[in-house]
Amino acid sequence: MRLPWISARTRREPATERDRSAPVDHTGLIERLGSHADGLHGEIDQIQQELVAVSDRVDQEARRFQSLLDLGRQLARTNETTEGAAREAREATTEADRAVEDSRATLTRSLDDITALTDAVSATEQEIGNLDAALEGVGSAADSIATIAKQTNLLALNATIEATRAGGIGRGFAVVAEHVKELAKQTGQATEEISGILDELREHARKLIDRASHCTTLTGTIQTGTSTVQDLLDTVGGAMAAVDGAYTRINESVREINSSCRKTVDGLEGMSGEVDTTRNALTEARDNARQLAGTAQTLSAGLGDDNTAADAERLIQETASTTGTLTVYVSDVAGAVNQVEERVAHEAAMLETFSRATGQLEAAGQSVQESADEARQSAETTASSLSAASEDIRSTVTDLQDMTGQVGQMTTELSQLQDALQRIHKASTSISAIAKQTNFLAVNASIEAARAGSRGQGFAVVAEQVSALAEETGQATQSIEQTLEGLSDTAETLAAKGRDGASRAERVQADSRNISEVLTTLEQAIRQVGEQSRHIQSATGEMNETCSRASQELNELHGEVQQSARDLTSANGRLDTLLGEGQKLLNLCNSVDVDTVDRFFINKAQEGARAAGAALEQALRDGQLTEADVFDRDYVPVPDTDPQQYMTRFVELTDTLFPAFQEEILSCHDKILSCCATDDQGYIGTHNLHVSNPQRPGDRDWNLANARHRQIYTDRTGQSAAKNTEPFLLQAYRRNMGERFVLTKDASAPIYVHGRHWGGFRVIYVP
């Protein structure tokens, strides 16, 4: 049935038997086909040359790219070395900071102890001076007692003589005299002991004064030394703060470098597979271009022969078949080159990014080097300060140890002094007891003298004198006791100070060792900082050199890739032209009433177009849709779809109307992959049932192959079919099925609704 909306140019009347039997002159068409074929052959030769040139360049780029990747990995390794050196230097700086803080605390405590020790030593020196004067008084009293003892002994001797003269009367007095002599002897011995102890005490006092004087002398040098230590700690603390700041900047830069290196290497490694894919795809495209050249040569040769009119129909059929194969191959090469072009453009963009990153790496590396140089200079300056002060500090430590040793000896001397005082006290107590006994004997002698009457008068005188001497001895011992009591209190006070001083001396001794150890720790830490700073400078120097090489490689590679991109753009343009010319030739072959390999599929496309137009017109007549609904182009996005799907006001009705004839045409030939109606914007609302499944969220590739409905197709083939108004349009293209591409042909015919172009009906089939 002839549909009324089909224009005269789209209708083709079936040929009559007479028409079929009469030879048709296709000479003009064959000449046009030959002209087109010659043009195709020349264009293919040019494309082949361009693809060979680009392919060779891409091979070179792949090798350069591998070199660049190696440089990126080398950068990462070098930065790891820098990072390790920075970490060790930071640890050394932290150790030095800790040592400085500990030393400050130690020094503060030591200064307090040293001040207390100095005060104690000064007090000891003064008290010992007073002690020496007191000892002189004790010595004088002891000398007096010794003299009294001699006098007492002399009196006792005289008393013995008198007792002998007196005979029996003096016998009792003689006994008393003997006792007095013995007591005088004991008193003399006690005073000799006191004199010896006094000499011992004077020696202790002398030693204490000498040690105190020596400590006083050391105090000045120690104060100077501790001031030097404080200044040094301030210097080291300031230097370590500067070093710490430098290493903070180094660590920040190292982290930045590490991040950039990791991103660059990851990106380059990710591109590595893409570069190989690009090279393989380009090689395949180049090989296919060679096949194209052979096919074009065959086509040109066939059309260039002298052909009779009887051969014309066969020639057109062969040309249509060969051209169909050619256009399919061209579409395949064009698709591959287009993919390569996209990849190369992406590579160029990535290389541009890497180039900027390399510049940032060089800047960061320079920052690291400058900071490391700052840290190294601070370390060297501090090391010089340490070296200059180390002798004074060690001398101070020696003086501290000497002072603490002297204080320890003073404590021992004070203890011995106390012991000596105790012994004097004991001797004095003994003399006091002897004096009492002597006085008692003198009383007895007086009694005996009284009994003797006039004959005992001499004894009475002696007894009186002995009693007087005993009294003097008692007074002398009392004086000694009073002096000793004061001395004992002083000695106890000094001993207590000595014990406190000994305790402080032990702490100062330990602190002095600590200061010495800290000095060693600081020297090691500063040396470590200097060494690691030099390692960092060496590593960053190597890194900057690598960055420079990488930057040069990137610039050269970027230039080559850009040239490849330009060449591919040119080749792609030529392929577009070639595909267009090939499709013109293909459509030209099918423009006459000759049964070509594509004729069946063209007829099915036109059949589908008529059925779609008729269905929409019937829906309008039935009031199921308005004309505005049929031509609705307000595409409403379906949320959460990938690829994006859309709804229109007509799509629900086409889901009801179109599947009947679409599925029938789909099943009429094994080569047909799909057939469907598209509006004039490329929107396919209702597709074949087998590719109209609900989308799977997050699975784009599966959706591309199995959920092809409700989509707007913006590719060249889809848009050409949608907008074509010629009776038919034959195209060749690579169909994207998600995980793979399928080489296909596309026969389409325009759909009209009441004479208004609505879109097209597409039959997609394998050649």
Automatic annotation (TrEMBL):
InterPro entries with a match to the protein in the record: Chemotax_Me-accpt_rcpt, MCPsignal_dom
Primary subcellular site in the record, as a coarse category: membrane
UniProt keyword list: Transducer
Biased composition (Basic and acidic residues): 10-23
GO biological processes: chemotaxis; signal transduction
Sequence ranges of Low complexity compositional bias: 378-390
Pfam families to which the protein is assigned, alphabetical: MCPsignal
Keyword Hydrolase found: no
Record-given protein name: Methyl-accepting chemotaxis protein
